[in-house]
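[09:14] KT: can someone run the structure on this one? pasting the chain below
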Amino acid sequence: MNRETVVAEALGLLDEVGLDAVSTRRLAKRLGVEQPSLYWHFRTKRELLDAMASAAMAPHATAPLPVGGDDWQDWFLANTRSFRCALLARRDGARLHAGSTPVGDLDRIRRKMDFLTASGVPERDAQTAMLAASRFTVGSVLEEQADGAPGAAGELPAGVPGIGHESAFEAGLALILDGLARRVGE
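[09:31] RB: done, C-alpha cells below
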C-alpha cells in the first residue's frame, strides 16, 4: 500500500458515500488494514483530504497550457470549463476542493498569468478574473451537486423561472469574461 493507492481508494469511497461519510475508519476497512496504518501515509484526515482534492483535480491540472498565439478569451473559457468538469467528475467534488489547501504547480499558475498579461490583460485584472472565475465555478458546482444530493429541495415555487445549471454557469462565465474584456480595452 502506498499514498497513491490510499488516495485512489479514498476517492472511490467519496464517490460511493459522499464527503460527509468519508472516514479513516471506513477507508481502512476498504483497504483491509488497521486504521493507524493510514497515518503512515497521512498524518491527519485534512492531509488526506488535501491529497484527494489534488488527485481529483489532476485532469484539469494536466490540461495543456496556453501558448503564444492562442486567443486569451477562448483559453479563459476553456480553462474555466475544464475546472468545472474536474469538480463535477467526483461526488461532492466542489466541497472537497473548497476545503483543500492548494498544493498545485505554482509554475503552471504563473504561466497562465503570464499568458494573460502577454495577451494584454492587466496583471491585477488577470489575477482577479482567475480568482473570480474559480470561486464562481466552485459555487456553481456546489449548487449543482447539492441539487442532486439526497434530500435536496425539489422544484422551484410557482412563478419562479428556472434555469439549468449549465446554462446558469455559462451565462455567469460570459459576464465575467465580458467584464474582463472591457478592462483590456481601457
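[09:33] KT: thanks! The chain has two domains: 3-56, 58-185.
[09:34] RB: yep, looked fine to me
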